[in-house]
Amino acid sequence: MEKPYLVIEWNDTETDATGWLVIHNFVKGYTSGGIRMHPQVTRQEVEHLAKTMAYKYVASESTTTGGCKGGIAYDYKASDAKEVLRRFVIAMMPYINSDTTDVSASLGEDLGTSYHDVLNVFKEFDFDLPITKSMKQDETVQKGINDYNELLKTKIDGLFLDHAVTGYGVAFSADEAWNLKGGNTNARVVIQGFGSVGASCALKLEQLGYKIVGISDANLLVTCPEGLDVNKLIESKNEYGEMDQASFEPHYVVQSNSEWLDVDCDIVIPAALENAVNGENAHKIKVDLVVEAANNPISKEGDDMLREKGVDIVNDFIANLGSIRFYDAILFGLIEPETQAVIDDIDTLCRKNVRKLFSEAAKKQAYQRNIAKQLFKPSISDTPGPEKSMPL
Predict the structure, then answer these.
(1) What is the pLDDT of residues 172-189, one digit of tens each?
(2) 239: pLDDT strictly greater than 90
(3) What is the four-CA torsion angle of 136, 141, 145, 146, rounded to 10 degrees?
(4) H helices present in 281-338, as ranges
(5) Is the pLDDT confidence value at 387 over 90?
(6) Which residues contribute to the annotated binding site?
(7) Which residues are catalytic?
(8) What distance in Å separates the CA atoms of residue 367 and residue 372, rounded to the nearest whole number?
């Protein structure tokens, strides 16, 4: 299962946008992942992300869903970005809402896209969420869809629940790993990326007693050795996760966003693009714990350097599974449809996976990423077809 099951390329007829839907595997005819929009998106990146999603569903203990990903090479800040996204989703509609085979690719948000915008396209085609024909006949799933839609309206700590769950899961993972390492209290954290994942991760870590001493976004890096006011920074940021420098405290220091690895800290959390840590900057990392909030944020060259330096890693498909666990747990009725129940479930699962990861790595004296790939390797790839209709 190293190669994707299906790769579909799309070329927009109205702009120069190009996009891909990559299905790594189906489980019971179902596969799921977000849509990423960014000028630098490539087919190779989308294939890599779809594979990561397959691992992530195993780590989230799903028995119902495989991994897929959508990617659009286009500027998500462009005035017509929503129209480009709409045309991409419509082009992929035969794989999202099929009436000929009992399969479905469920697409949501990722970097540069909004789940609300994706849902609006689904509603144009008279359905709420992409599901298979078998799922449409399942009363538990039908109830789960309604419960999920209601939970999307709820908030926790001032954030919409679906904007909080992934970042909170990263924070729980980082906290568990730091505790296992016997780390000191009031540990200092630097977060690269301040979208919904980076912001919610920063907020939860602050609540857990950590000092957020540096945050970078697309424009700048802001630092403060005594700790940044995360709530105030969240209130000031725009829809793209960019902070408003005019709202910074006078004692905050503003630097180039390329200097985020130069900040003195204990834990580094990359929460933005792929390969943010790479062969050119990995030597700057002086911490001994990196927690991946973004998907694939460390290149192979960067990873080799961190392994040689003895840096501990909590990799992406363990740390940032909050969103897909939320979706799966509610859709398939695994937990009570309550806001705190969702958070508690993610907390429990992330910490359990981190303990398993560190225990196995210590036992085998091996790098955490290699152990994670062994522990959570996908083993199911169902072949779609009309005869493959399976009960859940």
Answers:
(1) 999 999 999 999 888 999
(2) no
(3) 110
(4) 300-309, 316-319, 322-331
(5) no
(6) 56, 166
(7) 69
(8) 9
